Amino acid sequence: MNPEQNTSPASQPQCNDSFKINGPCPVMIQFVGERMTWGFDWSLLNYFVLKANPDCHDPEVEPPDELMLYFRAAKVTLLGWCLDLMLDDIATQSIARVWKLKRELADPNMEVAWISEIFVLPDDYDVLAEHADPATASPTSNP
To answer: What does the alpha-carbon distance between residue 41 and residue 36 come to, in Å, rounded to a whole number?
Structure first.
């Protein structure tokens, strides 16, 4: 019996340049941002949606794909290229960590997903309140 660790490909985490796959099934998925890391239990994922990025005007320069993951606690939006390549791994809940990279680092000949932006919007986050102008907000009456 060989005392060395098993280094078979199946036991090593797989990684492309924007997300890490752990086998067989990690309990959580992490989204790594510049200032913080968000983690969600895979069981909290309700559904996901892949669509064309409505703000993309030039796919060579701007990310053409938008992937939204709807968890019970938050909505996570990923912008990037070839995000359809993540769908099978999302469906099998095998992604452990997601992070963003600059597009200029991408090899155009490789078929890998490249994430350029990650947005996490907690479920209790009030977008309208953040953008409300305090001067125009209606005054509250005090009894």
So the answer is: 17
The whole-number average pLDDT for the span 96-106 is 76
The answer to whether residue 140 is domain-embedded is no
Q: What is the pTM of this model?
A: 0.73
Residue recorded with tokens 């099934």 = 25
Q: How many domains would you assign to the chain?
A: 1
Q: Is 53 helix (H, G, I), strand (E, B) or coil?
A: coil
Percentage of the chain exceeding pLDDT 90: 50
- Measured distance CA(40)–CA(66) in Å, rounded: 19
Range of the domain at 102: 14-125
- Which residues, in sequence order, are CB contacts of 40 under 8 Å at separation 6+? 28, 29, 31, 71, 73, 74, 76
Residue with tokens 């019970």: 72
